[in-house]
Amino acid sequence: METYSLPPKPKNSLYKKLKMIIITLLVIALYVWTFVSIDIDWGRAIERAANNFQRVIPKLFSPDWTATGEVALSMLETVFIAFAGSLMAAILAVPLAFLAAHNMMGGKIFSTIGKWILSAVRAFPDLILAILFVVAVGPNAFAGVLAIAIGSTGMLGKMFSEIIESIDMEVVQAMEANGANKIQILFYAVMPQIIPEFLSFAIYRFEVDIRASSILGIVGAGGIGTMIIFASNNRNWNEMGTILLAIIIVVTIIDFASSRIRNKIV
Amino acid sequence: MIEFKDVSLVYPNGTEGLKKINTTIKDGEFVVIVGLSGAGKSTFIRSINRLVTPTSGSLQVDGEDILNYRSGNLRKLRTKVGMIFQNYNLVKRSNVLKNVLAGRLGHTGTLRSILNLYKKEDISLAYESLKRVNIDEKIYNRADELSGGQQQRVSIARVLTQKPKYILADEPVASLDPPTSHQVMTYLKKINKEDNITTIVNLHFIDMAMEYADRIIGMRAGEVVFDGPVSEVSEKTFEEIYGRSIREDDLRGGADES
């Protein structure tokens, strides 16, 4: 058999090479600068870690089983917060997504406004939202639900609008061509194309929200985070072990279930 | 009857899609429009159901100028003008029956169609349409489980269910292999004869145009450069329409296999 040798690669120009070198140097400088300026005292950090390792880690691995009931209840609350929050977000995100998708409302103005609203919503970190809602509705699970709902609406709205923008518009045109009105087109041409993806992203977001809602309690917005902050303040590492175990188990189960369900629908 | 009177269309970017088209298509005719890609065939066909809007002239369908139609009138026009596309344009995730019933949307109230409450006659019409193009055994399959030829037959059934007076077909066989192409064209021709539906088809294959058309309209650069019955057409005519000699890939072939 004949062997072929590849034709020579096109040579990079001097300008290109110079650009590459400068960019590489800049990136390295940036890293050096950041690490120098955070000013880590490595000696102290290692010493502390070594001490606490002895004290804390073994306790984390011998969970306090007497707390199981309490931990399970508050983990359940966490799941409920995530579920209610992501459900609310999935509903709120739909109209915003239609507004933001450039192929739906028939106008660049609407889609730009929609995209702005969604970016503005996304700009708030979950914890900040939680703090705001704790102030607004009091330190309870409802504050957590609202924080999750608003936090997820931004991301889901963006995802949904991208799904809407990716549909096959020729199908829409086919429906227009046989005399269907706007609402009929929505139900016959648009919805069959978007619903499976919408569900898939909503479930994925629920998965993310489980993790998010387990720390919301730190600022008093309900769920297992409240227990985390108490256990940590009281140096109760055994109970912290139980809490971590609960979070790991629940998150794993939900990740697994969610990816199974999502594979089924798309 | 469809009458083009001095119809021109200039796209926003300045391209002239149609230049002063004057032609009349009588009821029951089977017209094939030929021309190279970019000659304005699609623009011509899509003007008739106003998927594109000509910028001047008058275009009459059944004696009414459709160029100033707005949403209500437009939907009424479109319910009597069915359309078949090159890419079939079925909803891939819906089943065949639902796709075919979509042909009734223009005749069905919004609430009824959303709740899937079709009249018995509509459902039986949909089934009959599927039977006519021989695809009735796939009625509960999802559209994306069908082959290209089968999908195009479903889209013909969708148009039949619409009970149109006119059928427009924009390159209906361009994505199909030769035997399937002939099958699809045979169904279109049969429907044209049996139901007396005026049919206008865009094709770029010369042999298919000759085999199925009653009348051929040749287009080049947005203008009608030939218009006459198929008996007056020879290879010379196509060379004039295309502005070059005829090549192998201007022919679909496979007529014997169907």
Quick rundown:
Chain B: It comes from Virgibacillus indicus. Chain A has 266 residues and is mainly alpha-helical.
Provide keyphrases for this structure.
heterodimer; A: 266 residues; mainly alpha; MetI-like fold; 10 helices; 79% helix; B: 258 residues; alpha/beta; Rossmann fold; 6-stranded mixed β-sheet; 4-stranded antiparallel β-sheet; 9 helices; globular; ATP binding (chain B); membrane (chain B); ATP hydrolysis activity (chain B); ABC-type phosphonate transporter activity (chain B)
How is this structure best described in words?
The complex is a heterodimer of chains A (266) and B (258). With 266 residues, chain A is an all-alpha fold. Chain A has a single domain (62-265), classed as MetI-like (MetI-like fold, Orthogonal Bundle). Chain A is built from 10 helices and no strands. Chain A has helices at 14-38, 42-60, 68-100, 108-122, 126-137, 141-165, 169-177, 182-216, 225-233, 237-265. Chain B is an alpha/beta fold and 258 residues long. Helix content of chain B is 34%, strand content 23%. In chain B, the strands form 2 sheets. Chain B has a 6-stranded mixed β-sheet with strand order 6-7-8-3-9-10, with helices on both faces. In chain B, strands 2-1-4-5 form a 4-stranded antiparallel β-sheet, covered by helices on one side. Chain B is globular. The model of chain B has no long low-confidence stretch (mean pLDDT 92). Classes of the chains: A mainly alpha (266), B alpha/beta (258). Chains A and B meet through α7 and α8 of A and α2, β6, α4 and α6 of B.
